[in-house]
């Protein structure tokens, strides 16, 4: 009887040990698979970042960010102070003074940030280049100081005959402003603008024939 009890307890202990061992092996496998996925994802992102070359940096980026921060801060302060200004102007009882003060506050609160954004939204702060795909990634700043990225290739770029205000080129229809002297290599600028392509000297003759 004692031998039977000992065999039974040993068998149960063996089953319990095998069950726990199986659970531990399963956990280790799951952890290993997750670690491999994370490592592969991290290595893929690292490889993509290493492939990109930083070929352009806008020199006015810190100044533009500082001005936009000041403008947005002034707008928020103007919105908060507008009820107080209107209340104080209403106590005076002058309608013309009330209109003038509201116009001034509204101009500095709404119009100035919009005008500033209209001018600076075309300014390219950085350009990265992927030599494996021939893709450029241009970075601009939106109204709320968040970075926007635009991917394009050299064939997506059009250079206007008469450049607009703060416009050097159009990439996928979006106007952008860049400066040639701030590229790490002038060849990048020439390739983006299409200056490396052969010139067609027969355009004028073709236009004359079409008119005839």
UniProtKB/TrEMBL annotation:
TM region(s), chain numbering: 97-119
Superkingdom assignment: Eukaryota
Coiled-coil positions: none
InterPro entries: TMEM70, TMEM70/TMEM186/TMEM223
Pfam family of the protein (one): TMEM70
UniProt keyword annotations, A-Z: Membrane, Transmembrane, Transmembrane helix
Family: Belongs to the TMEM70 family.
Protein name (Swiss-Prot/TrEMBL): Transmembrane protein 70
UniProt organism field: Loxostege sticticalis (Beet webworm moth)
